[in-house]
Amino acid sequence: MDDQYLRTRWETRIKPLVFADVLAANNPVTIFLGGQPGAGKTQGKNYALAQFPPDTVAEIIGDDFRRHHPDYEYLITHEPLKMPHATAPASGAWVGMCVEYAEANRISFLVEGTWRNAATVLDTARRAKELGRQTHAVVLAVPPLVSLAGIAERFYRDMLRGFPARWTPPTAHDVTVDSLVQNIGEIVNATYLGDPMIDRFTVTNRSGEILYDGAACAEAVDIFQEHFERPLTLSEQKIVRDTLAICEQGHMRFTADDASAADVLNRLRQGIE
């Protein structure tokens, strides 16, 4: 797919969906929603959007754009484990087009990401402040075993129901997990010690509990790390056990020959032993 194809696809399919009912704002805001795959970012999104009247903030969520890839239907039906890698370049390009359009038209927007690259967040935040926009960062503090169970459960439950199922490669999860604490520190330090690029910083969890809400400072990083690295609660251990039963059933039917899928299940087993 060349650039013109991607642009045309965005103009005809994605732009009308993302910006259909959202108008320009007098004081536009850029909201950054972060967390590793499977963290449950819907909770963070709901919290952030609840701060504004309905239909005043555009939602830019790259995973939602994958279905507009011309090979998506084939991939999701016949090769679901290959779908994420195959659709990532187009999805990323469309996210960039949405951000560019929203900034040019003073539209408030929420952009979802993993924050595995601090520079991406900081560059967008810096540009937002140069444009006179408000900025709000919301991050999910979720133990990695819980999020790993989340990505596996979502995939296998949909496969067992006969629905289109989105696989998240465990490597994408792990790369984010390994760098998330450091990257949040970089984002906060760039704001706290340098230019004030993030006006408000919120740490929440999978249940929607607000763990921190205030200025971007060292306390926010400490609170995130505490909840990100904590042991699982008894209820979370039960969730992982229940998830494992579903995943084992699905793995036997659909991914028995895939080493990365087998590794995910082994890690879930080891995590609750």
Outline type: globular
CATH architecture: 3-Layer(aba) Sandwich
Number of strands: 6
Strand order of the largest sheet: 2-3-1-4-5-6
The CATH homologous superfamily is named: P-loop containing nucleotide triphosphate hydrolases
Order of helices and strands: HEHEHHHEHEHHEEHHH
Task: Please give a handful of descriptors for the protein shown.
273 residues, alpha/beta, Rossmann fold, six-stranded mixed beta sheet, 58% helix, 11% strand
Question: Care to describe what's here?
Answer:
The protein is of the alpha/beta class and 273 residues long. Helices cover 58% and strands 11% of the residues. The protein is globular, with a radius of gyration of 19 Å. It starts with a helix and ends with a helix.
How would you summarize the topology of this molecule?
Blueprint: H1 3-19, E1 29-34, H2 41-49, E2 58-60, H3 62-65, H4 72-78, H5 83-104, E3 109-112, H6 118-130, E4 134-140, H7 144-161, H8 170-192, E5 200-204, E6 210-214, H9 218-229, H10 234-254, H11 259-271
Parallel strand pairs: 1-3, 1-4, 2-3, 4-5
Antiparallel strand pairs: 5-6
Helix pairs in contact: 1-5, 6-8, 7-8, 7-10, 7-11, 8-9, 10-11
Tell me briefly what this model is.
The protein has 273 residues and is of the alpha/beta class. The protein contains eleven helices and six strands.
